[in-house]
């Protein structure tokens, strides 16, 4: 019985992130967005009306649960679909093997929260992106383009010749 109980999913403890706590609020905000989207004459008008704000920041220890969750749960816009735990991310980031940029998005209806993640390293002449992830709730709003632009700006500031984003095609990541 003890062996059975240690393997029963019923007793698994999952980390609940701040993003999880705000899920109900986000559903209500998305309903408002859909109303505006349906009334907009074009996608461009809809996006302009949203008044999106995209923020890029370095990671902190507090961000690790959400970063891990993004790698584990994002499929559609995940360049490699590499899944990582908090421990794996912490080891990669604290060792200096990889650097991270977190993407936060808000619009006039509220915060989307931490919806994007870019893990990268600086090689001799290029910025090498290991992981490029965007949650589907922000997909198609130009956030993915802003993320690529941010990487390009970082590469330029570091005098790199360009940016390479790793990509591994899967059945689920066609949007990427």
Q: What does the model show?
A:
This protein is 39% helix and 23% strand. Helix 3 crosses helix 4. The chain has seven helices and five strands; from the N terminus they run H-H-H-H-E-H-H-E-E-E-H-E. Strands 1-2-3-4-5 form a five-stranded mixed sheet, with helices on both faces. The relative contact order is 0.16. Helix 7 links the parallel strand 4 and strand 5 (162-165). With 176 residues, it is of the alpha+beta class.
Q: Give the low-confidence spans.
A: none
Care to count the β-strands? 5
The proportion of strand residues reads 15-25%
* Helix-strand sequence: HHHHEHHEEEHE
Number of helices: 7
Structural class computed from helices and strand pairing: alpha+beta
Report the radius of gyration as a whole number of Å: 18 Å
Shape: globular
What's the pLDDT, averaged over the residues?
90
Helix content: 25-40%
In short:
Helix content is 39%, strand content 23%. By secondary structure, it is of the alpha+beta class.
How are the SSEs placed, and which strands pair?
Blueprint: H1 2-7, H2 18-21, H3 23-39, H4 43-50, E1 53-58, H5 64-73, H6 86-94, E2 99-107, E3 110-122, E4 126-134, H7 143-157, E5 162-165
Parallel strand pairs: 4-5
Antiparallel strand pairs: 1-2, 2-3, 3-4
Distinctive features:
single chain, five-stranded mixed beta sheet, 176 residues, globular, 23% strand, alpha+beta
């Amino acid at each position: 019985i003890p062996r059975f109980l240690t393997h029963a999913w019923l007793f698994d403890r999952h980390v609940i992130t701040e993003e999880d706590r705000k899920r109900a609020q986000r559903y209500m905000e998305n309903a408002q967005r859909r109303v505006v989207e349906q009334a907009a004459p074009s996608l461009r008008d809809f996006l302009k009306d949203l008044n999106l704000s995209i923020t890029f920041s370095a990671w902190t220890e507090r961000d690790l649960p959400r970063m891990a969750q993004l790698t584990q749960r994002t499929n559609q816009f995940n360049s490699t679909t590499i899944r990582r735990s908090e421990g794996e991310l912490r080891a990669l980031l604290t060792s200096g093997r990889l650097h991270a940029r977190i993407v936060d998005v808000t619009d006039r209806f509220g915060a989307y929260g931490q919806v994007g993640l870019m893990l990268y390293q600086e090689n001799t002449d290029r910025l090498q992106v290991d992981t490029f992830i965007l949650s589907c709730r922000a997909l198609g709003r130009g956030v993915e383009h802003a993320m690529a632009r941010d990487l390009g700006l970082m590469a330029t500031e570091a005098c790199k010749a360009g940016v390479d984003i790793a990509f591994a095609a899967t059945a689920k990541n066609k949007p990427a």
